[in-house]
Amino acid sequence: MTVTGRRKTDGARALEALRDESASVRLRAALAVGSAPDPRFVAELVERCAVEPEFFVRDMLTWALTRHPVADTLPLLLDEARSERAQARSQALHSLSKVGDPRGWRAVTRGVLTDADDEVARSAWRASVLLVPEEEEAALAAVLVTQLGRGGHATQLSLSRALIALGDATAPALDLAKRAADPVVRAHALVTERLRHDPDTGFAFALEEAKRTVALGPAADGAGGT
């Protein structure tokens, strides 16, 4: 058998192993596929991302995708970001952020930034701040602040980090959010503002402090936002 023939056979075996019952086998298969990139593998890698139950295997699948030419991966990932399956959307957005091609910004729609599924939204937030064109940063911040107060600590911390990553573009939208009618939104805006100025502050501690500030009324809100 020729070298090319052996590679084709090895590739076919690796693709089959991506569906194995053992997570460790699937992990090794994803590593093998990424170590020997082949355009024929891309569609299967994208599909496996949508259904793979183990995070560490999904991460290896994403790495394998980044090893392939952007011309092969980008169109499929853009399509997958519009999938009806939440995990497919989340992983496609995550992969686009790792691929890093500016054209991936097309997948970061208001729909995914405000997706009802927290994991999809968090992936969209992380991808958005990596892919956003400079001229779109303020508009992105305006959308992101509409999500303040949603979810638990992990979701709220993800959103705060995304807003902080936008730098000064965040300030106008965040200032408005600090005056929102919803006290949960105000508290999240306040803690995000504090973390912008003091990144070493613990999120949980700062959030509880922000909640106390909000509970004390408008005057305390103003003091907490300085």
Automatic annotation (TrEMBL):
InterPro entries cross-referenced by the UniProt entry: ARM-like, ARM-type_fold
Domain of life: Bacteria
Protein name: HEAT repeat domain-containing protein
Protein species of origin: Streptomyces californicus
Lineage: Bacteria, Bacillati, Actinomycetota, Actinomycetes, Kitasatosporales
